[in-house]
Design a protein that fits this description.
alpha/beta, 8-stranded parallel beta sheet, 10 strands, 32% helix, 18% strand
């Protein structure tokens, strides 16, 4: 094979124990299991940054080595549980941030709906304070092993809002994050749900669309495929 694949992985919550008000089980990985999963992948993959992977997809004439990329969505505070360990292992991580939730006073709509059904007396605003990275915390993440990408201002599904609403939401996110010293022009769609119009809009701004569809990447096709590794044992 001329091109070995570049696999791009995404995870969400990682902690010693799952907080039932913060995350559902399918979105969570126990901390030690997360480390075992990454070590397992490291046996036959070299971890590189998303920016480096995109460069390879666009410019490699051949690729004999297997590469992997690690990403995480939403800007969840639990990522702090793994950052020191990943840095020690020299494994880059791309954080796709929802800028609205950095304020710590609101949770994403789908979480609010789930919370109302499961624990109607729970205060979503109080939960938000410890659930997401603050703006200060995000801008303190300046390690060479960190990249900061776009996930929208709020956690909206691109297929369920208007084109104008999508453009306004992504523009708000860009306005906050583009000054980050580790910013990269990449946008991760929530649940990987994209429309042709939204893809065209972000591509016209020089931003890379990033999906979640279980696919792997061989050559550049205009976007990046990802695989979810939440709540699994590799």
């Amino acid at each position: 094979m001329i091109y070995q694949p570049i696999r791009v992985f995404v995870f969400h919550h990682v902690s010693e124990e799952r907080d039932i008000l913060v995350c559902q089980e399918p979105d969570w990985t126990q901390l030690d299991q997360f480390k075992r999963n990454i070590e397992h992948l490291s046996q036959d993959h070299t971890f590189i940054s998303l920016a480096e992977a995109c460069d390879k997809l666009q410019h490699d004439w051949f690729r004999r080595r297997k590469y992997a990329v690690l990403t995480t969505d939403d800007g969840l505070a639990s990522v702090l549980n793994v950052l020191p360990w990943l840095a020690e292992k020299k494994i880059p991580l791309t954080l796709f941030i929802n800028t609205r939730y950095m304020e710590g006073d609101k949770i994403k709509p789908i979480h609010q709906k789930w919370l109302q059904e499961m624990a109607p007396d729970a205060d979503g605003n109080s939960i938000a304070k410890g659930m997401y990275l603050s703006k200060e915390q995000v801008f303190e993440l300046t390690s060479r092993y960190i990249e900061i990408g776009l996930h929208g201002h709020e956690h909206f599904d691109a297929v369920s809002i208007s084109e104008a609403a999508f453009e306004e939401d992504i523009d708000k996110c860009i306005a906050v994050l583009r000054s980050h010293p580790r910013y990269i022009p990449a946008f991760a769609y929530t649940w990987g749900h994209a429309t042709n119009e939204s893809i065209a809009y972000i591509q016209n701004q020089g931003i890379i669309p990033v999906l979640i569809n279980g696919g792997v990447n061989y050559k550049w096709v205009g976007f990046v495929d990802r695989e979810c590794i939440d709540n699994i044992k590799l």
